[in-house]
Design brief:
Blueprint: H1 13-34, E1 41-47, H2 53-63, E2 69-73, H3 79-82, H4 88-92, E3 100-104, H5 109-116, H6 122-141, E4 145-152, H7 155-167, H8 177-184, H9 186-200, E5 207-211, H10 215-254, H11 256-264, H12 268-275, H13 282-286, H14 303-327, E6 331-337, H15 343-351, E7 359-363, H16 369-372, H17 378-381, E8 390-394, H18 403-406, H19 412-431, E9 435-442, H20 445-457, H21 467-473, H22 476-490, E10 497-501, H23 505-524
Helix pairs in contact: 1-10, 5-6, 5-9, 10-11, 14-23, 15-23
Length: 525
């Protein structure tokens, strides 16, 4: 695989200088064009020690405006980083749309080192590479341009390069005992590197192997590859937008009724059933019980029973969370549910049993401009707490498959692939050792209407009720369809949904707290 990068290719100084000015102008112009694009560029450098990875990154920052470049090079994780899932620091550092991100010693570094040093076998190595491939596919699916450069030197050339650096008093700091140890293990690294490239070089995130012997050759190779790939990506994005616009326009002209029905999405089925115009069999299936319709909505507590249980569960929660803090066990609570279902009240009763230093509540609303410039999961990754704390999301990443789906803020392609992206995200939280509890607060449509009316009458609650809340009631059936599918697709053995019968607020609050306590007990043993 690497023989094509051991041919001794060089570019003369004269040849390089002849194209350098024009190429530099191309790169500056490209960067300005990218600033207006709705995708980020992620450029990753890996490869053999001494092959020019950091020098190439420095050149990119020199030739382009560093204000629009995010440059990250990683070492051993800090204490803060170790207290969060492995990919937290990479999600945190992703560039927003319109910017370029340069990454060195990033997500491939540790798996490669562990395999070369024989700390893990092929099976575990492949598993970690699969995690990386999933991560990169999520970014690419969201529109990111991903370029990966493997900077290579043959064993003899690497030795020569290390010795040259060592002899230079101004560059000798670059060479360490670790570099020489890695040189001695050259064959082990090459074997692992070949497997890595084969497993993770995809159409949406390809590896390009670059011979690192000659600085001018490698610079010319990398710069032209970035320029050409970015131009192709911009052209492809423009073409896709034109195609989508054209198809939408044709569909609206040719089938206006069908387009309106598609926009309403899942509301069409109940209306068709009622009108007797549904496809054969739909009426029968629509009468089948769903996961939500099968809940017992009469569950309740009287005042005395509620007060007793609330006191018991709060005391239990306080003791368990103190243990979790001492043992470094983080908890993530996800609160989803209908408008006016009592999520906020349940959160307040729960936090009353916690030390204020141990938790944070993240109220999730429409994304800010900064959040909108990133992958939709970025804003949730960045809020993950350190070890031993509790993070409470008042609405969450499930907005992608609920409100964004029903209201048309996400395309069908986007919300459908979100199920697997969410499962992968939650799997990483659990693998890290965190406690994950997901609640759906369910009330009936009649109960919601009654609560809306009550909010209109109570001055200090009136602000909670908006015109949007009333509009959402008109799409109840579409939301219910989305909720049922969400539960079906994302309630797993390790991350199950807790369905809370919330017509009675007292019952909902006790059940939410009791469920969290049970999960903590199971995790702590």
């Amino acid at each position: 695989m690497f023989r094509t990068a051991e041919l001794g290719r060089t570019v003369s100084k004269e040849d390089f200088e002849a194209v350098a000015d024009a190429l530099r102008i191309d790169m500056v112009d490209l960067q300005q064009q990218l600033r207006t694009c709705d995708f980020p560029v992620v450029i990753l450098f890996a490869g053999v020690d001494g092959a020019g990875k950091s020098e190439t990154m420095n050149l990119l920052n020199e030739w382009m405006d560093p204000r629009w470049i995010v440059t990250r090079a990683y070492t051993e994780p800090s204490e803060e980083e170790r207290e969060r899932p492995l990919f937290w620091r990479y999600w945190r550092d992703l560039p927003p749309r319109g910017k370029i991100g340069l990454f060195l010693s990033a997500w491939y570094s540790q798996p490669l080192l562990d395999r070369a040093w024989n700390r893990i076998g092929d099976a575990q190595f492949d598993e970690r590479l699969n995690r990386i491939a999933t991560f990169e596919k999520e970014l690419a699916d969201d529109g990111a341009l991903i370029l990966k450069f493997w900077m290579h030197l043959g064993k003899k050339e690497q030795k020569k390069r290390l010795k040259t650096l060592e002899k230079d008093p101004h560059e000798s700091w670059r060479v360490t005992e670790r570099d020489w140890k890695h040189w001695e293990m050259y064959d082990d690294f090459i074997t692992a590197s070949e497997r890595l490239i084969v497993q993770t070089s995809m159409g949406h995130a390809p590896w390009q192997i670059v011979e690192g012997l000659d600085p001018r050759y490698r610079s010319l190779t990398v710069l032209t590859a970035i320029r050409d790939a970015a131009r192709r990506h911009m052209d492809a994005q423009k073409m896709r937008k034109r195609l989508v616009t054209t198809l939408d326009s044709k569909q609206k002209k040719q089938h206006p009724a069908a387009t309106a029905a598609a926009t309403a999405a899942e509301t069409a089925v109940p209306e068709a059933v009622a009108a007797g115009t549904d496809p054969v069999g739909t009426a029968i299936l629509s009468r089948m019980p769903s996961i939500l319709s099968s809940l017992d909505m009469t569950r309740s507590y009287d005042k005395k029973g509620y007060a007793e249980q609330l006191q018991i569960q709060r005391a239990r929660l306080n003791g368990l969370q103190r243990r979790a803090r001492a043992e470094g066990v983080s908890s993530i609570l996800v609160f989803e549910g209908w408008d006016a279902a009592g999520k906020g009240g349940a959160i307040r009763r729960m936090t009353a049993g916690l030390d204020a230093r141990d938790y944070q509540v993240i109220p999730v609303a429409a994304p800010t401009d900064e959040e909108r410039a990133h992958h939709y999961l970025w804003r949730f990754w960045r809020h993950l707490s350190r070890a031993g704390r509790v993070t409470i999301y008042d609405r969450s990443w499930y907005g992608r498959v609920l409100v964004e789906r029903v209201e048309g803020f996400a395309t069908q392609e986007e919300w459908k692939r979100a199920y697997s992206e969410i499962r992968d995200f939650e799997e990483q939280l659990i693998e890290h050792g965190s406690v994950l509890v997901k609640y759906w607060f369910h009330i009936t449509k009649e109960e919601q209407h009654e609560r809306f009316k009550q909010r209109e009458q109570i001055a200090y609650k009136r602000w909670k009720l908006t015109d949007e809340d009333w509009r959402n009631r008109e799409k109840w059936d579409a939301y219910e369809t989305a909720v049922n599918e969400m539960i079906e697709r994302t309630s797993t053995h390790t991350a199950p949904w807790t369905l809370v019968e919330a017509n009675d607020k007292r019952h909902a609050r006790v059940k939410a707290m009791e469920t969290f306590c049970d999960a903590l007990e199971k995790r702590l043993g």
